[in-house]
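Section 5: illustrative case.
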């Protein structure tokens, strides 16, 4: 078994985020305080101490996650579907990062083959590799609105393909795998007996596609195939990364039991205080206002980013995101990709703006790409783009390009 390689995005954020004056790298919707969450809620009688006290005494609590939180999640996965998802089919984890890790650890063994939708969060490739799997990347195509090609997926499957990993909505592109493609993937995976894992941590932050659209993507759990797993958390769409609360949900109870077997060794239980905040956020009194705040923030800020791209279209291009919090922007000069690491380091040093170099985060095939996180507070995004504009005017011509 290989050891885990450095997690390049996390290292970059750790190094550059604390000293950035203008954070255009953040992938969480502008994070809320408990008071901010209470102010959004329709439950005007609730107080911070009510939330804390709902966690009662500070024992380990319910090992797999509190009933209140799992009931709320069960309700969310059960709307508009024929078969509700039982709370027992959900495990609470410390964030989606732990959820993904547990799924891989529970299911993948030496010699397995895994296919992973790409580009995406590095973890989804390197963890199964570290467990001895061969991972092949199923590439989204920038020229096709970041859609991957279904025929390519079919050709990639082998006799030992254990898992197909999707990230929907996708980090870093902000694209979605549309319903019509998901239907094909599900039918195909079912015919081959392959398990589908969908990292849905950016769900349901849809701001450029309407739920009325015939291709609006449902959760992977809502598509009638038992061997599906969704991971998610409160971090991105719900603006509460600090409570480190995520989940694994599956239609297949056997998968949940396998994950729990591993989870007993790593987690015992998740903080009761964190889960109390999460339950409050996902309760019917709060979730609607919370999501509409974040979707509105995404729409407003994406218009600012879009204006920036249009204004600098000589150097920048992108496929406008329809969901999530990130945009993947290509910077070129004289038809050559800019050295994105040099750009991001210089803009941090000279203008205090945090961005993420695409090749560092997602590999050499993304030379010239830069990931923006644009669902921070509007004032931060506005000021950051203004500083970036000034930087571009003064410094862009001197940046190295990739040969
Ligand atoms: C696709 C994806 N999955 C999982 C995570 C981990 O999120 P968390 O552990 O905060 O839920 C991230 C964080 O950036 C992500 O982008």
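Designed sequence:
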């Amino acid at each position: 078994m290989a050891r885990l390689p450095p997690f390049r995005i996390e290292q970059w954020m750790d190094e550059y985020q604390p000293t950035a004056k203008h954070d255009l790298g953040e992938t969480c919707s502008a994070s809320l305080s408990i008071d901010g969450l209470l102010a959004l809620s329709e439950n005007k009688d609730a107080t911070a101490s009510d939330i804390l006290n709902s966690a009662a005494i500070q024992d380990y609590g319910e090992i797999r996650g509190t009933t209140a939180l799992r009931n709320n999640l069960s309700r969310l996965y059960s709307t508009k579907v024929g078969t509700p998802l039982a709370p027992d089919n959900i495990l609470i984890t410390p964030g989606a990062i732990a959820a993904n890790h547990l799924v891989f650890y529970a299911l993948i063994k030496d010699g397995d083959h895994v296919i992973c939708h790409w580009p995406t969060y590095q973890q989804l490739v390197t963890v199964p590799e570290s467990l001895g799997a061969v991972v092949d990347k199923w590439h989204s195509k920038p020229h096709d609105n970041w859609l991957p090609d279904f025929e390519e997926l079919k050709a990639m499957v082998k006799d030992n393909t254990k898992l197909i990993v999707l990230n929907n909505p996708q980090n870093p592109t902000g694209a979605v795998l549309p319903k019509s493609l998901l239907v094909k993937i599900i039918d195909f995976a079912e015919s081959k007996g392959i398990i589908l894992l969908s990292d849905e941590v950016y769900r349901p932050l849809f701001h450029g596609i309407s739920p009325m659209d015939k291709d609006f993507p449902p959760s992977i759990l809502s598509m009638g195939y038992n061997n599906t797993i969704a991971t998610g958390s409160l971090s991105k769409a719900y603006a509460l990364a600090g409570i480190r609360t995520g989940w694994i949900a599956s239609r297949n109870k056997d998968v949940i039991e396998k994950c729990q077997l591993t989870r007993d060794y790593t987690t015992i239980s998740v903080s009761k205080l964190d889960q109390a905040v999460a339950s409050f956020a996902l309760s019917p009194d709060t979730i609607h206002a919370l999501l509409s705040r974040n979707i509105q923030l995404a729409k407003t800020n994406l218009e600012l980013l879009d204006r920036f791209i249009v204004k600098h279209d000589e150097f920048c291009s992108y496929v406008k995101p329809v969901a999530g919090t990130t945009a993947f922007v290509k910077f070129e000069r004289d038809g050559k990709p800019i050295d994105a690491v040099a750009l991001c380091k210089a803009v941090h040093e000279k203008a205090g703006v945090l961005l993420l170099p695409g090749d560092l985060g997602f590999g050499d095939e993304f030379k010239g790409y830069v990931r923006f996180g644009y669902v921070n507070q509007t004032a931060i995004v506005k000021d950051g783009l203004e500083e970036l504009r000034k930087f571009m005017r003064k410094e862009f011509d001197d940046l190295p390009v990739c040969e």
